[in-house]
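Support request, please re-run this one:
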Amino acid sequence: MSRPTDTRPILAVETSCDETAVAVYGASGLLAHTLHSQIKLHAEYGGVVPELASRDHVTRVLPLIRAVLAEAGLKPTDLGGIAYTAGPGLIGALMVGAAAAAGLAAALDVPLIGIHHMEGHLLAPMLESPAPAFPFVALLVSGGHTLLVDVQGVGRYALLGESLDDAVGEAFDKTAKLLGLPYPGGPELARLAETGTPSRFKLPKPMTDRPGLDFSFSGLKTAVLTALPRDADAQTKADLARGFEDAVTETLAIKCARALDATGHRTLVVAGGVGANLRLRERLHALAAKCNGQVFFPRREFCTDNAAMIAYVGWVRRSEGLAAVTGFPTRARWPLTELRPVNA
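Re-run finished. Output below.
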C-alpha cells in the first residue's frame, strides 16, 4: 500500500471526560500541547458531573486551539489533519471535541481522524525517548479501565485480561472517599500512603490465588471498609491507605508477570492515570529487572488524559491512510479490539 506524502502537522482535540486538551504533532515530534483541568469545577460534587463537563469544554476548546497553534508557531492552514477523541468516554463531552474538530477539518479541507482514547494511552510511551519496540504487553490502568493487552503493532491488540468490576482508578477513588479524602481521591490516597506504616494492614490481593489475567477490585475496597474503625485516627487512615496501595501494586505486578510469561514478551508498557503512581512504577521496574526485561511509562503528565497522545496516534494513522472519517462519529463504549490495524 502506498502511503500519503503529506507531512504537515496534525492538531488533536481531547474532551473525553473532564480535561480539555489540544496538541500538535509533526514530523519532528510533539510541537505543542496544552490542557485545562476541570478538577475545581467538579470538586464540590465529589466526582465528574457530565453536563457541567460538556458545558465547560464548549467554552475552553476554541481558545485552547488558538493557544496551542500560537505556541507551535503555526497557522490553521499549516495543518494537514485534525484528530479528535471519538471514544470511549462521556458522550456529551466527546461530542463537543468532535464537533470542534469536524468544523476545523471541513474549513481547512483536511482529513478528520477519530481516535480511540485507550489507544492513545497505550501508545503514549511512544512520545518518549527511548520508545518501546513492538511487540509488548501493555497494562492500561485508569479511572475507567484496567486492561492487559498483547500489542503486536498499531491496531494489533489482543485482550489478555480486564477488570470484572471496578477499574483500578475507580477503586482508588472510592477507597479515598471511604477514608474521607477530597476529590480527586486517587492522588490524595497515594499522598496519604506515603506516611502509612507498611504491613500494619495486610489486605487481600484479589484473584491472584487462581490462574488467569482478569482483575477484581471491588472486594479490596470492601476490605478497607471492614478494617476501618469508626473513630479511626489520621495514622490509622494512612496505614490503611498504604495497605490498599501495596495490595493494588502487588496485584498488578503479579498479573503483569503472568502476562509476560504467557506471551513470551520481555517488554511491558504501562499507561493511564494510575501509571503515574510512584509505588507502582517502582514495583514494575523491579519486576522488569527480575525477568531481564524492560518497562516503559509515559512522562507523568501524559499518564492522565491529554491531547499529545491523540495527536501522535492521529499522525500514525493518517500516515497509513486508514483513518479519515465523515461526520463526527463518537462512541461512549468502544472495545479496543475493534480497531483496524495499520499495514493490514
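The chain has two domains: 10-123+304-338, 134-297. The chain has a mean pLDDT of 94.
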